[in-house]
């Protein structure tokens, strides 16, 4: 990475990564807070720009993975619910009374447990990755998130246009 990274830039990059924890304060904070900080300060430094891109890429990737897990779980849960109820046709109020018996609902319980564990693992990966990225940013290092889909490509020094490059030649 650059050798001339200022402490201020390192702190901003670390703050971009840590700002995803605003999701615990307001909905979609994990997208909105890093996006606003990144959009406001990405022109200051390539270091800030790349860390902002990586933080947003990771949050979008984790969102897609969580939605995919939930969408995959729904048919399994419906199927296991119908099997546990003992009826494959009409579902009535008495149907759900059969779910009280663990023997009949064991498939449903196992399905909920498995998908719950997978979602919890995704959450733990997110926590550790965000903290690791913030520490790397504060040390002036690049961080590559695991399981990350690159929606916003990170820039190289040669890709970023400098003010002297954009001025017309005289």
UniProtKB/TrEMBL annotation:
Main localization category: membrane
Annotated TM spans: 12-41, 62-85, 105-135
InterPro entries named in the record: MamF_MmsF
Pfam families referenced in this protein's UniProt entry, alphabetically: MamF_MmsF
Topology relative to the membrane: Multi-pass membrane protein
Keyword list, A-Z: Membrane, Transmembrane, Transmembrane helix
Localization, UniProt: Membrane
Name assigned to this protein: Tic20 family protein
The organism of origin for this protein: Leeuwenhoekiella marinoflava DSM 3653
Highest classification ranks of the organism: Bacteria, Pseudomonadati, Bacteroidota, Flavobacteriia, Flavobacteriales
């Amino acid at each position: 990475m650059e050798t001339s990274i200022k402490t201020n830039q390192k702190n901003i990059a670390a703050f971009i990564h840590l700002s995803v924890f605003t999701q615990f304060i307001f909905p979609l904070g994990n997208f909105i807070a890093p996006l606003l900080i990144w959009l406001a300060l990405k022109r200051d430094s390539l270091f800030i720009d790349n860390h902002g891109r990586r933080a947003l890429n990771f949050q979008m990737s984790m969102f897609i993975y969580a939605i995919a897990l939930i969408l995959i779980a729904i048919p399994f849960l419906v199927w296991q619910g119908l099997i546990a109820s003992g009826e494959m046709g009409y579902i009535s109020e008495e149907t759900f009374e059969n779910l009280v018996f663990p023997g009949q609902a064991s498939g449903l319980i196992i399905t909920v447990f498995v998908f719950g564990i997978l979602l919890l693992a995704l959450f733990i990966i997110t926590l550790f990755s965000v903290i690791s990225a913030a520490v790397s940013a504060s040390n002036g290092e690049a961080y590559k998130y695991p399981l990350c889909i690159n929606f916003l490509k990170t820039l190289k020094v040669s890709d970023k246009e400098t003010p002297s490059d954009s001025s017309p030649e005289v």
